[in-house]
């Protein structure tokens, strides 16, 4: 059977959901504070706001430094593209018109707590994964699949970390 997984140009996505026993305002404080994210991720090493920004706002930019066993170390600049307090927080990595990735948290009140989701889209702009695909174009779909599963596992860990912090 032929592999029919997504290609990078398809802008594949992954989403993870969790219920958090805390109100959306409390969860929002955590998901919109990108400087907390390195403590929740094995890949993201540090984050700092740029251009005098001190917190989340539409158009605010931040730099993230990352490390991965297969890809090495790199840094990216992201820009907040959605900022709806208590509901949506999203950023584009790299160029906002042609990002290498888009990340989004959505929060909805549910059963006295918050239904929290983290979603991400690969591409369409080039990323570190593009170099692996360039080197092994015949394995593109497997490379994309494996990376999406890594993101899914990491995102589940992030949501669990947020849940524990919010429910204290």
Listing every helix as H and every strand as E from the N terminus to the C terminus, the arrangement reads: EHEEEEEEHH
Relevant CATH superfamily:
START domain
The helicity comes to 25-40%
How does the major sheet shape up? 7 strands, antiparallel
From the N-terminal CA to the C-terminal CA, the straight-line distance is: 49 Å
The poorly predicted ranges are none
Mean pLDDT: 93
Give the overall shape: globular
* Sequence of strands across the biggest β-sheet: 1-7-6-5-4-3-2
Question: If helices are DSSP runs of H or I spanning 4 or more residues, what is the number of helices?
Answer: 3
- Label the structural class: alpha+beta
Architecture (CATH level 2) name: 2-Layer Sandwich
Q: What is the percentage of strand-forming residues?
A: 35-45%
* Computed Rg: 16 Å
What does this structure look like?
It is a single chain. With 168 residues, the chain is an alpha+beta fold. It has one domain: START domain (Alpha-D-Glucose-1,6-Bisphosphate, Chain A, domain 4, 2-Layer Sandwich), CATH 3.30.530.20. The chain contains three helices and seven strands. The protein has a seven-stranded antiparallel beta sheet, covered by helices on one side. A hairpin with a 3-residue loop joins strand 3 and strand 4. The N and C termini lie far apart (49 Å).
The gist of it:
It comes from Streptomyces achmelvichensis. By secondary structure, the protein is of the alpha+beta class.
Topology:
Elements: E1 13-20, H1 24-31, E2 44-49, E3 61-68, E4 72-84, E5 88-93, E6 101-110, E7 113-122, H2 128-135, H3 140-166
Antiparallel strand pairs: 1-7, 2-3, 3-4, 4-5, 5-6, 6-7
Helix pairs in contact: 1-3, 2-3
